C-alpha cells in the first residue's frame, strides 16, 4: 500500500538519499526554498517539488488529501546573524507544525542535533542528560525542539520523533568536520585543526541515518527523543588522517587555537535507539569515505 510523505530541506544533502530509499511506492513531496538553486532534474525521480513558502496559506492544497508523515530536515548550521539562524531553524519549524495541523498530518520526524548538548570530558551523553547548548545553532535547534514538544502536548500533531544527530556526512555533504576535511584535501589544500586534534567525534554516515529515518517512519510512537551517532569514536586528528589516506591526499595541517564554543568531546549513547528501534550504525569512516569517492565517478 502506497504512502505519502512530505520532506523539508530538499536543498540539503540528506533529502536525495532519503528519497531514493523511500522508493517508487511512496508518494513523495519535497519542499525547496524559493531561492534554492536545485532544479527538478537534480532530484531523484518519483517526487514532486514544492517551492511555495512554508508559511503560505495555500501550501496544504498542493499536498494530497492524506500525508502520513513529515520528515523535517530543513535548518541551518550557520547564517549571517542570529536572527537569520533562528528564522532558518525556529520559524521554519513553527511553519511546518502549522502546516501539519492545517493539513492534518499526524506524524513528524525532526532532525535536530547533538549540539543541543554541551560536550563532556569523555563520558557518553544519553537522553536523560538535560540539554545545555553552547553554540547559537544548538540554542536554535533546542528552541525548535520545544515547539515540537508543545505541538504534541497540545494535540496539534499525533507523534514526533526528535533525532539528535552527531556529525553526519556522506555524498553531497558540505558541512561538518568530515565534509570540510574531504573537500579541502580533494582540492590539495591544508586542513585547519583547532586545538590539539584530540577532540573526540563519532561521524555518522548518511546511509545509517536514512536507515533510521525509515525505521521511525514505520513505527511512530508519541513523543520520543533519540541520541544518534556513528559506530566509532575518533579524534579530529584521526579523522583528518583517515580522510587523507582514503583520498590519497597529502595531509597538511594548519593548527589554530581551540574554540570555547565547540565541544571538546561529543560522545552520544545510542542504547535507547538500538533497543527500541533495533537500529545499529554500521558504516565505518573508511567505508563511508570510499562511498563518497565512488559517488564522484559518473555512472555510464
Describe the structure.
- This protein has 8 helices and 13 strands.
- The protein has 300 residues and is of the alpha/beta class.
- The protein has a single domain, classed as NAD(P)-binding Rossmann-like Domain (Rossmann fold, 3-Layer(aba) Sandwich).
- The strands form 4 sheets. It has a 7-stranded parallel β-sheet, with helices on both faces.
- Helix 4 runs parallel beside helix 6 (236-247).
- The protein starts with a strand and ends in a 5-residue tail after the last helix.
Architecture blueprint of SSEs:
Blueprint: E1 3-8, H1 14-22, E2 26-31, E3 47-50, E4 69-72, H2 82-103, E5 107-113, H3 136-153, E6 159-165, E7 168-169, H4 177-186, E8 191-194, E9 200-201, E10 204-205, H5 206-218, E11 223-228, E12 234-235, H6 236-247, E13 253-256, H7 271-277, H8 285-295
Parallel strand pairs: 1-2, 1-4, 2-3, 4-5, 5-6, 6-11, 7-10, 8-13
Antiparallel strand pairs: 9-12
